[in-house]
Automatic annotation (TrEMBL):
InterPro entries: Fun_TF, Zn2-C6_fun-type_DNA-bd_sf, Zn2Cys6_DnaBD
CC terms in the record's Gene Ontology section: nucleus
Domain Zn(2)-C6 fungal-type: 16-46
Protein name: KLLA0A10329p
Main location, first listed in the record: nucleus
Transmembrane segments: none
Molecular function terms from GO: DNA-binding transcription factor activity, RNA polymerase II-specific; transcription cis-regulatory region binding; zinc ion binding
Species lineage: Eukaryota, Fungi, Dikarya, Ascomycota, Saccharomycotina
Cell compartments where the protein resides: Nucleus
A Pfam family matched in the record: Zn_clus
Keywords: Nucleus
Length: 639
């Protein structure tokens, strides 16, 4: 007689939360947070997504007619908010009438400034401040009325995502409906999603949903590719600029670069590799990675180089914005992840050739202006190149054997004098969110880089007197300007911002205070390079020790662990960390090691390379540029 086995019937959870359903977990249906989400720290969502025929509803005309209570339509999908429908949570759907605000600052016409006019800036900073800072807001009403201009003192807004606005392919009604949805509908996930979110919920939670009609076939055909794109846009891009993402909504790596990649295959492939590799490095450090993505990454990189070679051999696309952006992103990729094959220099050299061919002025110099890098694509690429070129030169050495000697490109400065400079200071716009420093300080760093390069590539060991004089003058220019500008910023803070206690102003000035610190850290690190690599002061010199102490205090006070500012000053952390050889500086060593470890945890693999060199400097009492020469290390930290 054959025995029968009675199968136990498993009770299905039909009303479980979205997270448990996506992970195929049994949900206890406890509201507002189920047990599984509460234990893992996930966002618990009981809203429902209804799909007809298994596919999103595509007829926009019909979808607009669906005005059921507690429902909204996102990309043709009807979503139901059960919490609002059951009355357990008051949810108010946003109306279709939405006002989009745009900040515009009216400044006077800028005048060209050369090196001899630097004293005018210092003298101008000593003048009394202007009137109360005012931001001019341009409002555009939905009905198509003419723009209305109103003056509002110290008003800040939270605009819609620039990328979402520029790539959204539907009508404004659909856009407002999309914004009204409290949860993100759709998206791409894999088995690592819950692991990633458990590492750092705030850092990894995605915030952008791209409309399907604007996504290239490469992203539509592969959920993994779409997720890599999403990861770069929402996570990696935040680490490439020093300003906090809560304030810097016009981040070009979030805005311009992904939009350019939508129409350029080489740039898109490289962006996907960057995002996938970044996520893989974070999981790898936490020992949570369950696969090797190197094969897919290699295929994408091969496609990138193939497409890039096609662009370089085409006369029309050779010097295009997309070609320059691809080459700069290749350099950033190698620097970010620790370039073992030492190809970063080749990429910077290639970008330099493109810039020389694009220069239209008679002097053959790159012009640095006060036009913000997040205003237009052209200024973004120019500032990105200048920053990479200058900082990579300062954080590397040209004395090793390499076919690409980075002969320093000459930079000229075009800045704002008189009222406009003061107005920028009072509006907290004088320090760039993109680079974390003033344009004039970036220009002075370029001049320091020229002197360092001149000293290292000299054919004889004779120390020319004119080089000493130029180094001393440049040292004085940087220090005196930095001192005068910081005194003026302190006066403005005491006069206008100290009494402001509202949340918007507090947050804005908090971000600006970080930028003040990065501006000083970059500038003083440049002075350190000048004193050590050009003037030849020893690490035991009281001048060097005092300078390292000042930089370290700024890092300790204003640079938080895991912040984007920490990533962008990796060159400063590396350079100053290598100088901690004097006994009175030894107690700072744990601080620098902790910052480098924090960067490694965030997936910045080059920080591990920096840590090894820093520790070797401490153990051998050698200078980092001498270690580079001995070991033929051609690395840089220009992030």
């Amino acid at each position: 007689m054959v025995g029968t086995i009675e199968m136990k019937k498993v009770a299905r959870s039909y009303m479980g939360c979205q997270k448990c359903k996506s992970l195929k977990k049994k949900c206890d249906e406890v509201k507002p947070h189920c047990g599984y989400c509460k234990k893992r720290g996930f966002q618990c969502d009981y809203s429902r997504t209804l799909k007809w025929g298994g596919r999103p509803f595509k007829d926009n005309r019909v979808s607009k007619k669906m005005k059921f209570e507690h429902t909204y339509v996102v990309e043709g999908i009807c979503a139901v908010d059960l919490n609002a429908a059951t009355g357990k949570q008051a949810t108010k759907v946003k109306k279709n009438k939405k006002m989009i605000t745009k900040k515009t600052v009216v400044v006077k016409e800028e005048e060209p400034v050369q090196e001899k006019q630097l004293q005018e800036l210092v003298q101008e900073l000593e003048k009394p401040p202007l009137s109360e800072p005012v931001i001019e807001i341009e409002r555009v009403e939905e009905e198509g009325n003419s723009p209305q201009r109103v003056n509002m003192a110290l008003v800040s807004s939270t605009p819609l995502s620039p990328l979402s606005l520029s790539l959204f392919d539907g009508s404004k009604d659909e856009l407002d409906d999309s914004i009204a949805g409290s949860q993100r509908i759709g998206g791409f996930h894999n088995d690592d999603d819950d692991l990633v979110q458990s590492l750092d919920l705030e850092f990894f939670m995605p915030s952008i949903s791209l409309p399907s009609l604007m996504i290239p076939d490469l992203l539509l055909q592969s959920p993994e590719m779409a997720e890599s794109f999403d990861f770069f846009v929402n996570q990696t891009s935040k680490l490439l600029v020093p300003a906090p993402s809560s304030i810097y909504t016009r981040n070009p790596f979030f805005n311009f670069l992904p939009r350019m990649a939508m129409s350029n295959t080489a740039l898109m492939n490289l962006l996907l590799v960057f995002g996938a590799n970044h996520k893989h490095k974070i999981l790898q450090y936490q020992e949570l990675s369950n696969g090797d993505s190197s094969l897919v990454a290699n295929d994408l990189l091969i496609n990138t180089f193939t497409n890039l070679m096609g662009q370089l051999t085409n006369f029309d696309s050779r010097n295009s914005d997309s070609t320059l952006a691809t080459i700069l992103l290749l350099a950033a990729f190698d620097i970010f992840f620790g370039d073992k094959k030492q190809k970063w220099r080749t990429h910077v050299y290639g970008a330099r050739k493109i810039m020389k061919e694009r220069i239209s002025n008679d002097t053959g110099s790159v012009m640095l202006s006060n036009n913000s890098a997040d205003v237009e694509q052209e200024y973004f690429l120019l500032r990105w190149f200048a920053y990479t070129d200058i900082i990579s030169s300062l954080s590397s050495t040209n004395s090793i054997n390499n076919i690409h000697k980075l002969t320093t490109l000459r930079y000229e400065m075009e800045t704002t004098i008189k009222d406009s400079l003061m107005q920028k200071m009072m509006l907290l716009k004088d320090i760039e969110y993109f680079t974390g420093m003033e344009v004039i300080c970036l220009w002075l760093l370029a001049e320091i880089s020229r002197l360092v390069n001149e000293k290292e590539t000299a054919t004889n060991n004779i120390f020319p007197q004119d080089l000493i004089l130029r180094a001393l003058e440049l040292d004085h220019k940087m220090v005196s300007y930095l001192k005068a500008s910081e005194l003026k910023r302190n006066e403005i803070f005491q006069s206008y911002y100290l009494s402001k206690t509202d949340a918007i102003t507090t947050e804005s000035y908090g971000a600006y205070r970080i930028l003040r610190a990065t501006n000083q850290i970059f500038s003083l690190t440049g002075v350190l390079q000048l004193k050590r690599r050009v003037l030849g002061l020893p690490p035991s010199s009281p001048i060097v020790i005092e300078l390292v102490k000042n930089i370290t205090e700024l890092i300790e006070t204003w640079i938080e662990f895991g912040s984007s500012a920490e990533t962008c000053i990796i060159f400063c952390i590396f350079s100053c960390g290598c100088e901690l050889m004097a006994p009175e500086l030894h107690h700072y060593r744990p601080l620098y090691l902790q910052h480098l470890l924090s960067l490694i945890q965030k997936g910045v693999s080059s920080a591990e390379q920096a840590r090894n060199i820093v520790e070797e400097c401490w153990s051998s009492n050698k200078q980092w540029w001498d270690i580079f020469k001995e070991k033929s290390l051609d690395v840089t930290f220009a992030l």
